[in-house]
């Protein structure tokens, strides 16, 4: 009998509060391997909070999180996280290659030389995100789309099996969005699982397999075909959705 692989991410009844206010309430879902899961909801819905609490970057009040069937400390090298670009300092004097190499630090000490396979992962990440020609450019000189591609390259340079992306398309042009989605598709074809926070319902429908509709609590979770419905969107955004092709 074939052994079932552990679920990449399982979140059970996760709740987070700030200063007496509920930011996330009783969130439960699991991400399936080799698929893209889009997290969708209005501003302030707890989307970034969900990712950060799952990763232990902020405390949670209740709940349990497992990565590949275990606490994060046992699977940390299998998980890549791309925070929002606004949280990072692009004035720091480093070039794109230096930034991408940082994605390998979970597998060695920063002062140690990269092993040959790690150099290969860095080169592959630059190629997959289409920024090989920018390898020596200072990160402060990058456009918005180039920054997001560089951050994605850093995230995947560690060769993670689970990739968590917080608004990876913020401030990007259409070309960069296409390159990023194509890269994520190829990563999934290689067996990786992707979870991303996104706002564009059209591209969520086109490029994601599953969707989590969130507004401080999980409104609906499942496949795009069965979950991204007008009724669920109205419950998520708390107003009537006008007729539109993606609904």
TrEMBL record:
Source species taxonomy: Bacteria, Bacillati, Actinomycetota, Actinomycetes, Micrococcales
Organism: Gulosibacter bifidus
Stretches assigned to the ABC transporter domain: 9-241
Entry's family note: Belongs to the ABC transporter superfamily.
GO molecular function (one): ATP binding
SMART domains linked to this entry: AAA
Pfam families referenced in this protein's UniProt entry, alphabetically: ABC_tran
Keyword field: ATP-binding, Nucleotide-binding, Transport
Name this protein carries in UniProt: Metal ABC transporter ATP-binding protein
């Amino acid at each position: 009998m074939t052994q079932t692989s552990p679920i990449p991410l399982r979140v059970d009844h996760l709740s987070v509060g700030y200063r007496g206010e509920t930011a996330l309430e009783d969130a439960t879902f699991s991400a399936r391997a080799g698929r893209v899961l889009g997290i969708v909801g209005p501003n302030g819905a707890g989307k970034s909070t969900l990712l950060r609490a799952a990763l232990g970057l902020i405390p949670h009040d209740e709940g349990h999180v497992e990565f590949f069937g275990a606490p994060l400390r046992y699977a940390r090298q299998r998980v890549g996280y791309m925070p929002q670009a606004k949280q990072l300092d692009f004035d720091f004097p480093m070039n794109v290659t230096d930034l991408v190499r940082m994605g390998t630090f979970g597998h060695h000490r920063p002062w140690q030389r990269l092993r040959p396979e790690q150099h290969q992962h860095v080169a592959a990440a630059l190629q997959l995100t289409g920024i090989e020609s920018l390898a020596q450019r200072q990160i402060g000189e990058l456009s918005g789309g180039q920054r997001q591609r560089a951050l994605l390259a850093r995230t995947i340079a560690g060769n993670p099996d689970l990739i968590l992306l917080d608004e990876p398309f913020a401030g990007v042009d259409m070309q960069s969005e296409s390159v990023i989605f194509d890269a994520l598709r190829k990563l999934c074809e290689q067996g990786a699982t992707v979870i991303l926070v996104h706002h564009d319902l059209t591209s969520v429908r086109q490029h994601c397999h599953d969707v989590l509709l969130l507004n401080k609590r999980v409104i609906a979770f499942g496949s795009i075909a069965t979950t991204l419905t007008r009724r669920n969107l109205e419950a998520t955004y708390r107003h009537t959705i006008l007729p539109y092709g993606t609904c």
